Amino acid sequence: MSVAAFGLAAGLSWGVGDFAGGLATRRIGVYAVIVVSYAVGLLLLIALALVSAERFPLGRDLGWASAAGASGALGLIALWRALAVGKMGIAAPATAVMAAAVPVVFASVTVGIPGGMQILGLVLAFAGLWLVSRRESGGRTVHPAALRLALIAGLGFGLYFVLIRQAAVIAVYWTLVAARGTSLLLVVVLALAAGGIRFPPRHLLPLVLAAGMLDVTGNVFFVIAARAGRLDVAAVLASLYPAATVVLARMVLRERLARLQVLGIVVALIAIPLLVVP
User: Fold this and answer.
1) How far lies 268's CA from each of 26, 99, 261, in Å?
2) If you ran DSSP here, which 8-state letter would residue 201 be given?
3) Which of 37, 239, 246 lies closest to 121, judged by CA?
4) For a disulfide at 88, which of 42, 109, 135, 249, Cβ 3.0-4.6 Å?
5) Looking at the predicted structure, is the pLDDT value of residue 102 above 60?
6) What is the pLDDT of residues 195-209, one digit of tens each?
7) CA pair distance 153, 137, nearest whole angstrom
8) What are the C-alpha distances in Å from 15 to residues 86, 171, 186?
9) Which of 273, 257, 274 shows the shortest CA–CA distance to 91?
10) Distance of alpha carbon 216 from alpha carbon 160, whole angstroms
């Protein structure tokens, strides 16, 4: 129950946070949003770590946390760019499928081959990806860059799931502080290389702050879930986050999808829980 509760809580936090971050990115660019949201998240994590009085991770754990932070940062940059240039209702599920598949493959190698239902889930997942990439009504295709970015984001998040679980052996909050510090440093370097960092205008600050805080709570919930049970189960349940993003995109942005694309999203979302069945 702990794995299910915290895994789903992580998915809800990430789904709402990605909607806020993707919406802000459409207006001011990905680096401005991520740098500020990461900085806010880092301060929140430091406060939680100080209150918890945990030991700071050292040696190998610190290395895993830093690698997780770099992977997660690259994944988030790719995802929020995908959400900015394409339809959120397509980019988010495509990312989630890839993010869920990576821990399942990792668990297959380290724990054992997945069962029949998990194999069915993987087949359905990739069928869903094929469907969401089909032509829309009116002859327009899905933005190829958005779909490519979504798959890259999913790979980054999948690696993050694996790496952060390896790191979070003795601590939760300090492990996330180390990961987030690495993420922030990497994003700042990339932002400076791309032309500098622009502070978000005042009217977008609520979106950016919400994205940062929800990303942090999602990370905390995920690490707790992964420590309470199997990594692949926690990761797949957390990967249900597109449900929140898709619902918000439909309600707020009035996004409309072609029938085949709707079918693809449904198939992809059905595939995710199948991946946790033994």
Assistant:
1) 25, 12, 10
2) P
3) 239
4) 249
5) yes
6) 777 888 888 899 999
7) 27
8) 16, 25, 23
9) 257
10) 14
